[in-house]
Automatic annotation (TrEMBL):
RNA polymerase sigma factor 70 region 4 type domain boundaries: 124-175
CDD domains linked: Sigma70_r4 (cd06171)
Originating gene: sigM_2
Annotated protein name in UniProt: ECF RNA polymerase sigma factor SigM
Alphabetic keyword roster: DNA-binding, Sigma factor, Transcription, Transcription regulation
Length: 185
């Protein structure tokens, strides 16, 4: 199922303006999209359909409760993908499933960030991260992308936990400014 950015964003904007029907329709449409996203990612891991359904519910709850964080000037689907991917990675960490459990032939299905490269191209995380100083980029990669704890990242980088936290904070702030800068004509 291909999500229609224009229609879904219109529903999100109406939802943020207080339209309950639009909010309900948005969640219904996103649930179908997320269901396909998770089933596709989990299909080669031997996981059940109910696990994909659990992830759909987790992602919908995160979208619902975090909708106030959505930047109305930005495309919607990159924001949805970020939430969906985070929930998937968090689930894989919790259940101790790794890419090595999946096998090389299907590893890309789990680690792929995007089924809609066109919608997310303006927010290419790798390109944005490459603009950060090494210490900030590495801290973000280890903690926010790879899912290490701050203590684990500090040990790996040979830095203090405070330094890792500061680098993440400053790096995320810099990324936000880069994204905002790219969004302006």
């Amino acid at each position: 199922m291909t999500a229609n950015e224009t229609e879904l964003k219109a529903l999100m904007l109406a939802s943020l303006a207080g339209d309950g029907r639009s909010h309900h329709e948005l969640l219904v449409r996103l649930s179908g999209y997320l269901r396909g996203f998770y089933r596709g990612r989990l299909s080669h891991t031997g996981r059940s359909v109910s696990e994909a359904e659990d992830l759909v519910q987790e992602a919908l709850m995160a979208i619902h409760t975090g909708r106030h964080t959505y930047d109305q000037a930005a495309p919607l689907m990159p924001w949805v993908h970020a939430i969906a991917r985070y929930k998937l990675l968090d689930y894989l960490r919790r259940t101790r499933l790794t890419v090595t459990d999946v096998g090389l032939d299907h590893a890309e299905d789990i680690t792929a960030v995007d089924d809609h490269a066109g919608a997310e191209s303006a927010f290419d995380l790798g390109r944005l991260l490459a603009r950060l100083p090494e210490r900030m980029r590495r801290a973000i990669e280890l903690v926010k992308i790879e899912g290490l704890s701050v203590a684990e990242a500090a040990a790996r980088c040979g830095a203090s936990e405070s330094a890792i936290k500061v680098n993440i904070h400053r790096g995320l702030k810099a990324l936000g400014m880069e994204i905002a800068r790219e969004g302006k004509p």
